[in-house]
Amino acid sequence: MDPMLDNYRLLARYNTWFNARLFDACERLDDAARKLPRGAFFGSIHATLNHLLWGDAMWLGRFAAQGEASDALPTDLLALPAGARHETELYADWAALRAHRERLDAAIEAWLAALPADFPQRTMRYSNTKGVHREHPMWQALTHFFNHQSHHRGQVTTLLMQAGVDVGVTDLIALV
User: Which residues, other chains included, contact 117 with Cβ-Cβ below 8 Å and sequence gap of 6+?
Assistant: First the structure.
């Protein structure tokens, strides 16, 4: 086993665990409260969770394009509407948003489980959202992928606390 790849597999399990806790906590609010503009970068809890889906689908599509274990990432799960941007609402319906999140988290874990040990050391090549060609070690993209999720989940936990909902312990070490 490769310690670097094992780390990303741990982060995938953490991602699944944290998202389940986060969505459970969001269930304590009604739809209007989840969609209430709260002054966050994406406005609401619902919009921030949609952004996370968008970002994950975009990055996973880039990873899948590298050709390794891409069958663990179903194309229907990664499909984004034409012209989708970081603020695009992918799901207005709460149940559909949550269901997609759960399927995506399972796919992330399956994908990482299927990757070869040298994957993080490979070179990733893709174009960013502005069409600029990028090339860097895969581990940098994987680190960004999980860091992006943690960043926005942190925003959602703050918004929930401000709404009177405590998500509870979310530290990575609590999972371990």
Answer: 1, 2, 5
Q: How many residues in total does the chain contain?
A: 176
Pick the closest to residue 103 from 84, 131, 78 (CA basis): 78
pLDDT value at 90 more than 70 = yes
Report pTM. Answer: 0.95
| 131-145: pLDDT as tens digits | 999 999 999 999 999
Query: Which one-letter DSSP state was computed for residue 74?
Result: -
Among 44, 40, 164, 173, residue whose Cα is nearest residue 97: 44
Extended beta strands in 82-164, E state: 123-127, 133-137
Is there a contact between 38 and 45 (Cβ–Cβ < 8 Å)?
yes
